[in-house]
Amino acid sequence: MLNFSMEQLLEAGVHFGHQKSRWNPKMRPYIFGIRNGIHIIDLRKTLAQLQEGYEIMRKNSSRGNVILFVGTKRQIKDIIAEEAKRADVFWVSERWLGGTLTNFRTIRQSVQKLKQIEKMFEDGTVEQLTKKERNILATRRDKLNNVLEGIREMERLPDVMYIVDTVHEKTAVAEARKLGIYIIGLVDTNSDPDNVDFPIPGNDDAIKSVKLITTALADAVLDGRTAGQLGSSFKKRKTQQESAGETVEAVGDTSEQSEEESEQESSGQPESPSEQGDETPQQKSPDTPDEESQ
Questions:
Q1: Are residues 16 and 143 in the same domain?
Q2: pTM of the full predicted structure?
Q3: Cα torsion at 201, 3, 13, 46 (round to 10°)?
Q4: Which of 56, 96, 113, 163 has the most CB atoms within 10 Å of its CB?
C-alpha cells in the first residue's frame, strides 16, 4: 500500500516544474501557480495520481503482465536500472534503440547475437581468433550489452510501461502508442499529458523526485507480485480441496476467496481522475491491460 505524504513529495522537489515560457498548456490542470518564473506543480494532484498509478501497477503485476521501466537521461538512468532490478522488471536506461518495440523481432535477433558472442568468450572459442578479431568482438559485445541488458530476457512486448520524461523519451512513447501499450508517465510542466494513458505530474529532472516516484511504482510491482502468488496458491489449494469434496474456509479475518473476488471487482476502472478535482482533465481509461501479449 502506498504510504506517501505531501511533505515527502515537497522535500523531494516533486513540485518544481520548468520555466513558465517552456510550459505545455495541457498541463494547466496540474499546475498550482508560478514562483520566480517557475511553474509549481499541485502536489495534491500528484499524490492522487501517484496513489492511483500505484494501484494500476500493482494490478498489472498481480496478473503477471510484462512491465517495462524507461528512463535514459544521464542523471536518472541509474535509478531506473536499480529500481527495475529490485522489482525484477525489464528496463531501458541507456539509449533507446529505434524499433525496440515496433521492430521487436530484430531486437530479439540482436539479443541472440549478444548471447552467441558471450558464449564464444565463455567456452574459449575466441582463442581461435586473432587478437584484433577478439577485440572487435569484445567491443561489439559490450555495446550490445549496454543497450540490451535490461530487455535481453523480455520474450514478448510489454503490457505496460513506466516512462520518465515523455518529451525526452518521445520515440519510446510513439512506439508504445502505435502498438497500444499502456503508458504510465512521469510528466513535467513541459510535457503533453495526452501522450500517455496515465500521467503522474511531477519533476522529471531532479534525482530525488524521480527516485521517489520510481521507488513507489517499483514497490507496487512487488506488492502486486506477492498478491498474485497468494492468489495462485489459493486457486491451486481450492481446486485440490474441491476435487476431494472439501470446503474452502476463510483464513483470518478475510478469506482468500473474498480477497480474490475483491481483486476482480477492483480490477475494473479505478476512480476516474476527473473525480479527484474539477480541474483534472479527462484521461483515457486507466484499465489494467489484458494479460495477453500485444
A1: no
A2: 0.78
A3: 20
A4: 163
